[in-house]
Every structure is written in structure tokens, then in C-alpha cells.
Design brief:
Elements lengths: L1 H21 L1 H12 L3 H22 L2 H24 L18 E10 L5 E5 L5 E3 L5 E6 L13 E8 L6 E5 L7 E7 L13 E4 L4 E4 L10 E5 L2 E5 L6 E5 L1
Antiparallel strand pairs: 1-2, 1-4, 1-12, 2-3, 4-5, 5-8, 6-7, 7-11, 8-9, 9-12, 10-11
């Protein structure tokens, strides 16, 4: 009897062990369940990659507006050229004309006196130069005002242009070059511009003495020295005052 009980207990123990070995088989199914979801995350990663690639494509699409914004920059540069062309306008100097509206003038025959000798007639040569001769040319002094010359008439002293009587204020007696000695006087077209051209043709007349001086400088305080050189009437920036031109 006791032996039978031991066999029965042993049999029960074997049954329990067998039951415990049988239970792990269902445990493998959770592992399989875990394995099956594993591919799901892998597939979820792939959409993430696609989603990131999609924004990249959309971000490249706005690059076109960036280029369009550069185009206005170029168009704005085009108007900038307009002020550059307008910048030349202030550089354009407006030259005024000398004022010869004065009614004062004096007409006479031109002669030259050297060191208090008797006056000698002065005429215009074929080359349009002032030379000593037999017949004095008739000239007209016309009073003019020039702001650049800074000369002002006072009393008998007047400033202006010297012209042949047949071409008053059209042809003027002038020298070719300033600040050089022994310059010949010639008759050429008058310049009516109130600029440095007046230094080559502006004269001073003493209406009382009827004598002429060639101004040659701004202000007229120190006129050029006159001379007779090989029958030519000449002017030099420096020299003695022994030669006088008379308009009588």
C-alpha cells in the first residue's frame, strides 16, 4: 500500500514536470508576436525618410523666388545710371557776355609816338597786323564792362574794345598770346564772352588825352608796355612806357 502511494506521488510529480515543459511552447508565441511588430518600425522609418525628402524638394522650389528678388536688384541699378548722367549738368558752365550797352565811344585815326617824337601813322597791313605807315587807320573805341576783367570806368578812363570803323564790335584789335614779349597786334573776330578771352582784346582809353593802353591783365592797373619793333606795333607784359598809341 505504501509503495503504491509512492508510485502515485512520483507519477504526479512527473505530470507536473511535463506540464511545466509544455507551458513554454505558448511562451514562444509572444516572441513571435514581438518579431512581427519589428518590421512595422522598419516600415515607419521609411516613411520618415520620404517625409524628409519631400520638404527638401519643397525647399528647393522657393529658390526661384530668390532669383526673382535678385532681378529687382538689377532693375533698381538701372535707374541709378540716370543720376550719373545728370551729374554732368553741374559741370556745364554758363558763360555770360560782356556788356557793351554803354553809349560812350570814341573814333579817331591811330598814331604812335615813341619817346615824345612826332606821331607816326599806324595802319592795318595785308596780314591784318598793326604797322607803321603813311595813312592812319580809323578805329572806334567802344566802352564795355567785363566782370572777369574787374575794370571800372572812372572819370576820363574807360575800358572796352578797339575795332576798325567798318566792323565795330565785330572785328577787334588784339594779340595772339599773353605773358610773352613783343606780341604783334592783329585784327580778328571779337569775343563777346565774359571770360579770359577778354585779356587778349581789352583796352583802356584816356578820353582827355586820347591815348590808348593795352590792358592784358585783370584789373587794368598795370597795362602792357607798347613798342615799335621792325615797324610792327607790339606789346610785352614788362617794359618801359615810352611808346604811346593815340586815337585822334
Amino acid at each position: 500500500m505504501f509503495l503504491n502511494l509512492r508510485f502515485a506521488a512520483l507519477f504526479a510529480l512527473v505530470a507536473v514536470v511535463a506540464a511545466q515543459d509544455a507551458t513554454p511552447a505558448p511562451a514562444s508565441s509572444p516572441a513571435a508576436a514581438d518579431a512581427s511588430p519589428a518590421p512595422a518600425p522598419a516600415s515607419s522609418v521609411a516613411p520618415a525618410a520620404d517625409a524628409s525628402s519631400a520638404p527638401a524638394a519643397s525647399s528647393s522650389a522657393p529658390a526661384a523666388p530668390a532669383e526673382s528678388s535678385a532681378a529687382p536688384a538689377e532693375s533698381s541699378a538701372a535707374p541709378a545710371a540716370s543720376p550719373a548722367s545728370d551729374a554732368a549738368i553741374p559741370n556745364q558752365k554758363i558763360v555770360r557776355s560782356i556788356d557793351c550797352s554803354s553809349t560812350f565811344n570814341q573814333t579817331g585815326g591811330l598814331t604812335v609816338t615813341v619817346n615824345d617824337t612826332n606821331p607816326v601813322a599806324v595802319q592795318i597791313s595785308e596780314s591784318n597786323e598793326l604797322v607803321t605807315g603813311e595813312q592812319a587807320v580809323e578805329l572806334v573805341f567802344s566802352e564795355c564792362n567785363s566782370s572777369i576783367m574787374e575794370t571800372n570806368a572812372t572819370g576820363a578812363i574807360h575800358f572796352g574794345l578797339l575795332s576798325p570803323s567798318n566792323a565795330v564790335k565785330d572785328t577787334c584789335v588784339r594779340i595772339a598770346a599773353l605773358a610773352q614779349p613783343d606780341q604783334h597786334f592783329t585784327t580778328e573776330n571779337c569775343s563777346m564772352s565774359d571770360d579770359s578771352s577778354q585779356m587778349s582784346q581789352f583796352w583802356q582809353l584816356d578820353a582827355d588825352k586820347k591815348t590808348l593802353n593795352f590792358v592784358g591783365r585783370i584789373g587794368g592797373a598795370n597795362p602792357y608796355a607798347l613798342a615799335v619793333t621792325d615797324n610792327f606795333i607790339t606789346a610785352s607784359p614788362n617794359g618801359t612806357a615810352g611808346t604811346i598809341l593815340n586815337l585822334q
